[in-house]
Amino acid sequence: MAFFLETLLGGLMAGMLYSLVALGFVLIFKASGVFNFAQGAMVLFAALAMARFSEWIPQWTGISSLLLANVAAFVIAGAIMFVVAWLIEFLVLRHLVNQEGATLLMATLGIAYFLEGLGQTLFGSSIYKIDIGMPKEPIFVLESAFQGGVLINKEDLYAALIAAVLVAALSVFFQKTATGRALRAVADDHQAAQSIGIPLNRIWVIVWCVAGVVALVAGMIWGSKLGVQFSLATVALRALPVVILGGLTSVPGAIIGGLIIGVGEKLSEVYLGPFVGGGIEIWFAYVLALGFLLFRPQGLFGEKIIDRV
Amino acid sequence: MDTQKIVLSVNGIEVIYNHVILVLKGVSLQVPQGKIVAILGGNGAGKTTTLRAISNLLQGERGAVTKGSIELRGERIENLSPADLVQRGVVQVMEGRHCFAHLTIEENLLTGAYTRKSKAEVAANLEKVYAYFPRLKTRRTSQAAYTSGGEQQMCAIGRALMASPSMVLLDEPSMGLAPQIVEEVFNIVQDLNQKEKVTFLLAEQNTNMALKYSDYGYIMESGRVVMDGAAADLASNEDVKEFYLGVGGGERKSFKDVKSYKRRKRWLA
Amino acid sequence: MLYRENGQFKTTYRADQQIFPILQDRIVVGLFLVFAFAAVPLLASDYLFRAILIPFLIISLAALGVNILVGYCGQISLGSGAFMAVGAYGAYNFFVRVPNMPLIPALILGGLCATFFGILFGLPSLRVKGLYLAVATLAAQFFSDWMFLRIKWFTNDSPSGSVSVADLQVFGLPIDSAQSKYWLCLSILVVIALLAKNLVRGAIGREWMAIRDMDVAAAVIGIRPMYAKLSAFAVSSFIIGVAGALWGFVHLGSWEPAAFSVEFSFRLLFMVIIGGLGSILGGFLGAAFITILPIVLSQALPALTRLFGYEMGTAGVSHAELMIFGGLIVWFLIVEPHGLAKLWAVAKQKLRLWPFPH
Amino acid sequence: QAKEQFFPLLSYRTGPYAPNGVPWANGKQDYLKMVNARDGGINGVKLTYEECETGYATDRGVECYERLKSRPGVAIFDPQATGITFALTEKVAADKVPLITLGYGLSVAQDGQAFKWNFPLMGSYWTAADILIQHIGKKEGGLDKLKGKKIALVYHDSPFGKEPIPLLQERAKMQGFDLQLIPVTAPGVEQKSAWLQVRQSRPDYVLLWGWGVMNSTALKEAQATGYPRDKMYGVWWAGAEPDVKDVGEGAKGYNALTLNTSGQQPKVIQDILKYVHAKGQGTGPKDEVGSVLYTRGVIIQMLSNEAVRRAQERFGKGKVMTGEQVRWGMENLALDQKRLDALGFSGVMQPLSTSCADHMGSTSARVQTWDGSKWNFSSDFIQADEQILKPMIKAGADKYLADKKMTRRTAADCQS
Amino acid sequence: MSKKIGDVILDINNISLSFGGVKALSDISFNVREHEIRAIIGPNGAGKSSMLNCINGVYSPQQGSITFRGQTFKHMNSHQVAVMGVARTFQNLALFKGMSVLDNIMSGRNLKIKSNLLLQALRIGPAEKEEIKHREAVEKIIDFLEIQAYRKTPVGQLPYGLQKRVDLGRALAMEPQVLLLDEPMAGMNVEEKQDMCRFVLDVNDEFGTTVVLIEHDMGVVMDISDRVVVLDYGKKIGDGTPDEVRNNEDVIKAYLGTSH
Ligand SMILES: Nc1ncnc2c1ncn2[C@@H]1O[C@H](COP(=O)(O)OP(=O)(O)OP(=O)(O)O)[C@@H](O)[C@H]1O
Ligand SMILES: Nc1ncnc2c1ncn2[C@@H]1O[C@H](COP(=O)(O)OP(=O)(O)OP(=O)(O)O)[C@@H](O)[C@H]1O
Ligand SMILES: [Mg+2]
Ligand SMILES: [Mg+2]
Fold this sequence. Notes:
With 358 residues, chain C is mainly alpha-helical. Chain C is built from 14 helices and four strands. At the A-D interface, helix 1, helix 8 and helix 10 of A face helix 1, strand 6, helix 7 and helix 8 of D.
């Protein structure tokens, strides 16, 4: 029982971490109808910037406080992501107004390659460390109820909290503000949005910026867990079933989807895996998402796919 | 016409789609302040393209203005973004509705007021649109995609009005609307024109209505302006009567007895 | 005015329905085929064959298959790697388990295994659409990765899970030299491309495209979405499966599941998009772009920087390569969002009007 | 025509495995530079090389191979990746170039009578697994003490990670311990469920068969789930600096196999610093010189050079060797302690000698332990148990030959 | 011109359809006779298009049934409807955007294609002949609609009015017995409307095709239709000959207004 709880909790936390990456996808999809293939690369890029600057700043300035160095590195990395967002809009998106999803998807792929190359050129391709002082040792709760207690990973717990806050803030932003509405309008129809005076350029910079910051937070947390290295970009693939299950257009969906996928894949791996030789969690996550889709083809919270004649 | 103040003047523009398809071959037209100007012409004449060129929505269609100039109150506007134009009070109602499918009718309308910062003004505009189109009010919470064709058309027009424009480019506003509503739409146009001094440039197939309500008209054929003149003059022109009003030879012909041969248009000769 | 179709009047619909109705096209394609079959084997080096041409042909074949599903039928698939793997392992099992199994039937049977697998994972497409469908196909991808790693039977109980084939023959001719492999792949590609072209310009092709463009309207004119989608999955995964079998048998010779990884699937999809969705030619162009360009870059870049007296390390080269590659993708899309094939078509149209601009 | 022996260097400096691939590649390249600078090549034959980036991907590896294989004077290939090794195994036989896979690749390829062109020098995953079990047995106070114990293998879910399983199963049967298999999906960034399983079954030992980012992630997850690091044993690909450095204190007590020492003291490393880095010609940063994987790169290159040198002894000193001749040299290496000392490798590695039947040359490795800032040896060199390995290798090789419809090499062929 | 109006071919019985709170159709009944031109009119949002969607099987009505040639269905299946010979055009163009005009119209004949996948791939003998036979039929339609010049143009690039024609062409290619037209003349000027009317009348005349027509242009409706149904917010408020409808108080109030 204690173990079941542990697995469940582990799944929930892992799910929250996926949500954080998934959120980036949702943001950009929601605001421009683009499936942003570069999200993984953005996470990597942002994390690399953060890791290297938190290492460089003490060297350059002699600041010895970890907190100060980290805050400065975060700010610089955030600024870099802003510049990236602006460049993406200026060099790419602006020229692809009103194009089909597949075209834009390809463009984000080009961006992904570019960022991967640029990130490694600027910041190197070794494993780097982000140390934001997350506690690494586990804690045990409910020791009275279960022998040995239930293990909880504090680092995951903090990460989950940060993810939750971020998601809540973004949900409010989308649902309640005029900009949020404009973003949704842009996703539906670029041209019509332009025709009523929504400045696409500015909207896109804003969205990519927000997505950049979300990528930075995701990169920071994943990076502090795993170390910053090229493979960080591949967490995007783990986050994909989360986005789809939650619905490409739903911010809360990213969270719920994350929790379901997280729990589902951990439980399946731990309880079913041993019978079939293990290693099933990744396809199980996808099959799980698929199972939900068969009932709700637009994901749990996604906007209904409209086809009307 | 030169006595009036010209808000918009299009001077000999050429438009090419996809780098190869030449669609507009030197179109010029003027829209005087506070007037209603109609562009008439058959399918494929280039009406929509002209409006897109003015509102700078060509880019998304991979089209470009390659020659000529467009001026709004003396300012060259070819290089502005559509959003800049809306800031300057020029709004286009696109052909084929283009409502935001996932947004509700009311959200669609509110997005139309994106450039308006005053809450009171937005609320007032919303009320005004609902007053013009009561049908929209009853459907305000439906997602636009699930409303009928005509409701979407009303939504698109209403959405443009939400921006408190000083000039509206209307592309086939009457399409798909019931006759009563068509009448209403034109009444609204007239209303806004007279009361709020909004200038209109409209591309219309419903020539009858268009000429009845507008001050001046241009007739386009295959990318060129072939005829222009005061609306009343056009309405009494024999060719226009025959081809656009369906009343050639004085009598309105029944659709049942249309001849299966066609007379060549004089200006194509 | 070189490229003029004026004066080439078609007097029968048969003539008008040819694959290449314009005379110049026919001549160019004919010359190209002669060149590919006869001249290339004389000119190309072993490296060109083994490292570029053979993989290019096989990948083009796979891209062709992907294009049928994604480009023509509009079903986004990220599981192409899985279909290739099923084709490869299917063919492998027939090849090693059935005594004296000839190569070509083994390839076809491999393709049929992929067809079956494709239909199975195509079933969700009846309900799930667009990007959401990508999840179904990714499920296929990860499932096949897992299956071929975990289920020993598929790998003929090889302890490491990697398999290999030897002794390839077609009609008694050994397929071991680079030329023979090239001819084999080229012939298969030409035959399948021709068949595929026939399909996409025929009734079934119209059904696929109709489903892609507007499925409700398609249903109303009597097209059954189920039949159209599943047949697209079937045909496409057959072709991809054959390509996978060729990739394993002819190109790699010995492989593990990672040879058909999810990156492969992504790359195939990208080829099709950058080449041009819904265009057979586009598949070839896309395959060339995505497979050959990085190789060219990796060799050209150091040479280029050396000209400026700067020695670039391989790491620098590969990073620069990534950036240039990404930049080029974006650039091509900006020039022509509908892919290289469209770019080619526009160029042809310009040629047609040349020397007049419009 | 200048006399040049060409070494194609397949490497990966980008992608998920770059942190490990870079020092490895640098070691090889620096050693080549050093030999050219110090000795002027091998008996006057200059050594040239060209790097080709594979990104650890099989198809790009094949492309690199095809590109470089026909260069004049090409000596030997080291693909640096298991997947590429599989794809090249057939090709090198046709092209007659030897394939060196030091410490990786196919375990059965030790049987040189079946695998004429493969050289898994110094160890395979079977020897590695065997040595680890022996070491653990010793710690427990005898192999018989393993009875009833539980050992988990956390492995990279690929042929690389699966390779040790047959041997471990064999050992489990013999020693009566419980073997638990826990795969980790490549590249190994998400391992939570693997470690939940570890936490559930609480194995006495965990064997870690990882590469690249999987290793440090495993250590971090072990820390997060409270699994004692000193009960963890990694293969020699999970025992380099990049694997533990960024875990730091959290990896304290973690053990891993090693084929070689690390550090900058050995003479060969000093030579590299002197002849290459001091002149500003080092391939990578100076402080990476002498790290675990760097030194392994140096060893691989040294062995390749020695194969060339050995071949020259037979086929003509001062000549450029063909791939076939280098293969003979590789098959007839005899590096005793004296020779190693002369080469500047004293203490760096064990002596090794190959033969037609044995393409591995040496099967010993030792265990090292991370103390939070550096690696320390915690065992002597341990030799894998021939008794167990031999029959397994024979059986595997025979199956391979049967599948391929080939026969064992004859004694005459061994002389060629 | 005398044409023989036959028996009831399509009978709509008490159809009700609602979406959430919106009652798009409530208890609608009317019938369509063979060879007639039957118009459906009504204000925007009255449920006209929804009615066609029910006939086509795009929507499933919650209540009521549809009888087609004596067979009664609770709900129609799109494919089956097409097989039974009902074709349709759409209000918001539903053409296959990526295909050429020719392919769009050819796709209308897909139901008639008999050769299987393999034959099509090889394109030998019967498959090729079949293709050519259908091409001939389609070319007739193209001639008829006067869109020869656009044969190979992707429909997405055509101006709106021509797209409408292609849409009609696709429906005609099915050689339907019943043709449902949803605002075929929206966005056309008088001249073009005259053309369109001519097409509709010709089809009706020559092939005896039954036509169900939704249209807002009263001139057209009154001139060419035999009988008219009037819907208003889901309810039927009138049914009869054009003259009857024109003089119906309710209809005038709800739809026609005073100007007509
Ligand atoms: N995106 C496009 N790409 C290529 N050609 C186009 C494009 N849009 C329009 N055209 C072409 O431009 C010409 C003019 O089209 P336009 O839409 O301006 O006509 P229109 O006068 O608005 O017609 P309608 O009354 O039918 O709307 C047509 O021949 C059409 O084929
Ligand atoms: N799928 C749907 N979901 C929700 N509401 C719908 C749906 N389809 C139609 N409606 C509603 O049903 C009503 C009737 O729509 P319909 O499209 O049939 O009108 P119409 O008579 O064709 O109008 P128009 O002349 O404007 O085209 C409208 O109010 C519309 O909003
Ligand atoms: Mg138009
Ligand atoms: Mg309607």
